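Input (structure):
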């Protein structure tokens, strides 16, 4: 089973524990040390923000930037790892304060394009053709501050320009309904894929679904995944968990809602996700209380829970599913699923 799935995470998932209300509680782990941990923890893929790979990327000549990215590629090769994707980090730069592609200031919009082209070049140097767009600040704090119709046109234009910039790259849009904005312009996978089909090359635009982001939109993550899988457009997942409608928690996979986690694994199995060769990303954060020595446990645990749930999905008796469906006896089916999840033998009454 662990051979069927490939796992990835981003360097931000080994974290010092700072939150909006308090400073770091664990020492910084330098990038090369993080890379050295991947294989030991059971991971083969590295997710990158552009500046995770080349921290000073905006102040370098393009050739210098590529040289630094190539050095990171050599580090990856040395560890037997691959880059899964690169995401332009538009949300931390002061020029992205009002969004990038949808900023009201044309200078900021230009900056967002230039920065994204650089992210594409970094991706190529790292050996991946996948760009992830988490459209963090593409939204508003107050509705009156932007024309939302124009904003959607600008987003489409930006995606088209990225597709034109490099004919080999593909873009996975990671939707999220809120945070850091009050409302974001591409809140769900439905919005993301509608945008994909409007572009000049829909075959190169798909989606990445994060559990918590779907929950924050009041939707079921497994159904969101099914929507993308049905169109061959689920190009990555960020599995984690989320305890209701609050800030984006990035809890360990399955920790808040095991049944919903089971259903996410079930839909990945039903959709033949392993055969696509795509990664299972775990976008999880260690609790702030966790000591430095064990602040990678959330990654190991999330992967382990995922694999246990793969086993649960594969061993659930198909005949119970079929019989209950035929009888339209969903109370019985539900009990059988819960019995199975609790290690009991599922029964048909
Ligand atoms: C935000 C996220 C992000 C994105 C990642 C890729 C920090 O809620 O999930 O993780 O996944 O940045 O752009
Ligand atoms: Mg994510």
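Output (sequence):
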């Amino acid at each position: 089973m662990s051979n069927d799935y490939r796992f990835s995470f981003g360097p931000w998932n080994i974290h010092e524990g700072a939150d909006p209300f308090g400073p770091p509680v664990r020492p910084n782990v330098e990038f090369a040390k993080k890379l050295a941990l991947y294989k030991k923890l059971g991971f083969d893929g590295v997710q990158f923000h552009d500046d995770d790979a080349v921290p000073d990327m905006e102040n370098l000549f393009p050739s210098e930037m590529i040289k630094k990215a190539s050095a990171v590629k050599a580090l990856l090769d040395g560890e037997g790892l691959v880059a899964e994707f690169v995401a332009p980090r538009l949300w931390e730069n002061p020029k992205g304060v009002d969004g990038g592609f949808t900023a009201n200031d044309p200078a900021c919009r230009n900056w967002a394009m230039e920065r994204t082209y650089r992210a594409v070049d970094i991706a190529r140097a790292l050996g991946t053709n996948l760009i992830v767009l988490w459209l963090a600040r593409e939204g508003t704090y107050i509705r009156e501050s932007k024309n939302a119709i124009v904003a959607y046109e600008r987003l489409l234009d930006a995606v088209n320009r990225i597709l034109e910039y490099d004919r080999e790259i593909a873009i996975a849009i990671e939707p999220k309904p809120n945070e850091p904005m009050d409302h974001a312009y591409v809140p769900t996978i439905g919005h993301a894929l509608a945008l994909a089909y409007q572009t000049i090359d829909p075959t190169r635009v798909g989606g990445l679904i994060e559990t918590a982001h779907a929950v924050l939109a009041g939707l079921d993550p497994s159904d969101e995944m099914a929507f993308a899988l049905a169109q061959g457009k689920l190009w990555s997942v960020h599995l984690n968990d989320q305890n209701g409608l609050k800030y984006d928690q990035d809890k360990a996979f399955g920790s808040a809602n095991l049944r919903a986690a089971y259903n996410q694994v079930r839909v990945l199995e039903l959709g033949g996700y392993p055969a696509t060769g795509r990664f299972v990303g775990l976008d999880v954060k260690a609790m702030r209380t966790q000591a430095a020595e064990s602040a990678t446990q959330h990654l190991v645990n999330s992967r382990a829970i995922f694999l246990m749930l793969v086993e649960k999905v594969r061993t659930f008796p198909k005949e119970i599913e079929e019989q209950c469906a035929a009888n339209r006896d969903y109370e019985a089916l539900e009990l059988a699923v819960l019995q199975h999840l609790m290690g009991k033998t599922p029964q048909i009454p």
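Notes: The chain has a mean pLDDT of 97. The two ends are 31 Å apart (CA to CA).
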